[in-house]
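Supplementary notes (optional reading)

For those who missed the lab, this is the record we used. Protein: Elongation factor Ts. Length: 294 residues.
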Amino acid sequence: MAITAALVKELRERTGAGMMECKKALVETDGDIELAIENMRKSGQAKAAKKAGRIAAEGVIVIQASDDGKKVAMAEVNCETDFVAKDENFLSFANAVAERVLNSDVADVEELNALPLHEGEDTTVEEARQALVSKIGENMNVRRFIRLESDGQIASYRHGVRIGVLVDLSGGDEELGKDLAMHVAASNPVCVEEKDVPQDLLAKEKEIIEAQAKESGKPDNIIEKMVEGRIRKYLAEITLTGQAFVKDPDTTVGKLLDSTDATVNRFVRFEVGEGIEKKQENFAEEVMAQVRGE
């Protein structure tokens, strides 16, 4: 695979390493950027590998709740530009989609698209989307949604229009629920507690930590303790209960929940465009391609 300047630039942005180190790492992995990041982390070259899946697509996160608050729906609806994300017609469509999710039992986007956008009308979600694309002149789609129901409380929080969080909470009160939802929005934990951490994620991180520790040249018994300490720190960073509470960094979320006799059953966090890479237009290259007849 050709190692392009754009690929080197992306690796530099995601790792903080130098240009030559990035190019060498990409050559060694035949252009596999994720493997290059993993190898650079193991060798200590990557200063701060940023999260995979850069936020690139535009759109909104919309939240709708039932009157009693026991059922809440959250949806992500994407478009191409920030300008359209503020358009009243687009926002109206997005809110109608979330309301349709709330008041239905559909399990995926394909099923949702086949439903009428508004109860009692014939126009489906997909037909309404296509009509809006024709009217506005920009592509858009319903990317994903979630619907939570609970006998306890479902706290929700939306940061602007780009981040949305739902927290299914047993015990506690409304203020605690909102604080927890805001915390999840800000700190982006992977899961609620250590037992919920995906084993493949933990195994990969342990492999990286072990490789980094061995680079220190210290004795095996010291390396073992270093690995144990770093794994503990890693688990605290990615679990909700292990994280320092954003409103009071001197305590953890786990201790906060214990003090209020509350339990987080689950949470969901959506961020607009996460995992989607927006196409980068290079008009000079496009013109040259046309000149060459490509």
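If you only remember one thing from this example: DSSP finds twelve helices and eight strands in the chain.
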